[in-house]
Amino acid sequence: MRIPSYNNERMTRTLTIIGCGYLGHHFLRQFGHRFSNIVTTSKASFPEFPVSHHHFFDLYSSTRLPIASDWCLISIPFSRQLADPWAYPHGLQQLVPQISQKTAIVFISSTSIYPCINNWVTESSQTDITNRARALRAAEQAIETHPTRSIILRAAGLCGYNRYSRMTPAVPNANAPVNLIHIDDLNHFIWHLMVNPPAQSDIINVCCPEHPTKADYYRYQCAHLNTPPPSFLESDAPFKRVDTTKMTMHYAFTPHYSSPLQFPL
Fold first, then answer.
1. Would the pTM count as exceeding 0.90?
2. Is domain 14-160+180-209+240-257 in CATH 2.60.40.1470, yes or no?
3. What pLDDT digit, counting tens, does each position of 134-156 carry?
4. Contact in structure between 181 and 255 (CB atoms under 8 Å)
5. SS in 3 state form for 102-115?
6. DSSP H or E segment with residue 73
7. Phi/psi of residue 100, each to 5°?
8. Considering only CA atoms, which of 152, 40, 154, 150 is closest in space to residue 103?
9. How do residues 32-43 score in pLDDT, each as one tens digit?
C-alpha cells in the first residue's frame, strides 16, 4: 500500500467518533492507539476497542452532545429504513452546532448521491434529484456549515472482513460496473487526511479505481468462497463509474486494493 510513512509515536491528538459501528470499530482497531483521548457514541452497543469515554447517542433525538476533540469522525449510515429521509439531515443540522469550532470534521457520505448517467462521475458532477439523494446532499450541506475544516468522503459500497456484497440467485444488471471500496482502504485514507490535513474543506470520492462488472465480481467472490455462482441477467439499465482522480492524484493516496477483484475473502 503506497501510503506515506507515519510517525509510530502516539499522537497527542483527540478523536470523537459519532456512530462507532462497522467503520469506527475497524478504524480504532488500526489507529486507535495513535490518539491520546477517544470519545465514541452509538445508539445501543459498547465499542470493542478501549476508549476514554462512550456515550449512547441517537442522532434523531434531542440529546445534546458537546464535542471538543481535535477530530470528529461522523459515520452514522444514512439508513434506507428511515420513514422520512429528511430526518437524517435534520439530525445533523442539530448536531453540527454542538461541535467546537476548533474541531475538524470527517463525514462519511455516499456515492449513491450521484445519478446513473452511463458515464464517470466526479466530485463536481450534478447530484441526483431523487428524494433520498437530495436529503443526503442536505446532510452534506449541514456539515459544510461548520466554520472549521470539514472533509466529506463520498464512499462507495463498503466491503471487508465479515461484510460482502449481497448476492441473489439471479443477479440483475450483471454487465454493470461495481463501485466498491475495502474498509481498510477507506480507514487508511481517513488516517492519511488526519496526518496530512487539507488546507481547506473538500469533498472527495473514495472508491476502488477499477470497476469490474457485477458478473466478474460475483464470480470472483464465489470462486474464493467455494460457492456455486448465481445466474446473471444482463440489461441496458443505466450505471455510473466513480472517478477517484482527486483521491489518488491530488491527495497522493493509492488504495491497496485497486480493484474489488483483489479483496481478500
1. yes
2. no
3. 999 999 999 999 998 999 999 99
4. yes
5. CCEEEEEEEHHHCC
6. strand 71-74
7. -55, 145
8. 150
9. 999 999 999 999
